[in-house]
Structure formats: C-alpha cells, structure tokens
Amino acid sequence: MTAETFQCMVITPAARIYEGQVKSVVIPAHDGKIGILPNRAALLCKLGAGRMRIRSNGAEESWFIDGGFARVLDNQVIVLTQEALRPAQIDRSHAQALLAEARRIKVVDEITAGRKARLEAAARARLRIAAR
C-alpha cells in the first residue's frame, strides 16, 4: 500500500465481490454522494441505492449498490450492501418491473410511504446505471 492508494472491499450477503488497492471511491450515501480518497477521516454512513465508482490504476469501475453501510477507517473502506451489480448485469426489464411494482404500492402511512420511495429510487437507479 502506498500513500496514494487504500484498501477497498465490497461485500454482499452472498460473497466478497471486490477487494483491492484503489485511488478513490465514490459511494451513494443515503443523503448524497461521498468521495473517499487516501487518508480520509474515519466515517460510518448509511448507503442509498445508486452508482458506486471505484478508481484504481487509471481504470474506473462502476457498480449498482442497493443500500447498506460503509465504513472508512485507517485507509480502508468496507462497503456492506444487499446487492452489487455491474451495469452489464442489470436486467432492464426486471428493473422496469421493480419500478412498476413500487409505483403500485398504496401509501397508507409513513412506513409504506418510505418503503415506496426507497423501492422507486432503487429501481430508477438501476435503470440509470444500466442505460450507460
């Protein structure tokens, strides 16, 4: 590890899907994007659904992640998420079906309103990422 890189791991319930030395990571926090560079202060945050970008050795990789948590500590970032997909792995018809299903949820209280908003946001993020 050099001063210009740091360790990154992306873990889902099924597997560790990424591990390596990186130059930067951008994650979709629940309230906006967060950029992470070497020597960043410690951080623990809740993730939203959206694009995570990992830059290493001049190459940039993108992933769709669906919520979870991220921890930055001692030049290491760990992303724990329910699902992580590369853009090519996203099934557009499935994402459109998820969006339609989310839109059909009847809002009866704050809990269903929050669930509907989260599901719609995740489906829209899938579609945006798959379109690139």
Please sum up the structure shown.
The protein is α+β, with helices and mostly antiparallel strands and 132 residues long.
Give an account of the 3D structure.
- The protein starts with 5 loop residues before the first strand and ends with a helix.
- The chain folds into two domains: 6-85, Sandwich (ATP Synthase, domain 1); 91-131.
- The mean pLDDT is 91.
- The protein has helices at residues 92-103, 110-131; strands spanning 6-11, 16-22, 24-29, 32-36, 43-56, 59-72, 76-80, 84-85.
- The chain has 132 residues and is α+β, with helices and mostly antiparallel strands.
- Strands 1, 2, 3, 4, 5, 6, 7 and 8 form an eight-stranded mixed β-sheet that branches.
Overall morphology: globular
Reported CATH architecture of the largest domain: Sandwich
CATH fold-level name of the largest domain: ATP Synthase, domain 1
End-to-end C-alpha gap: 32 Å
Number of strands: 8
CATH class of the largest domain: Mainly Beta
Q: From the alpha carbons, calculate the radius of gyration and give it in angstroms.
A: 16 Å
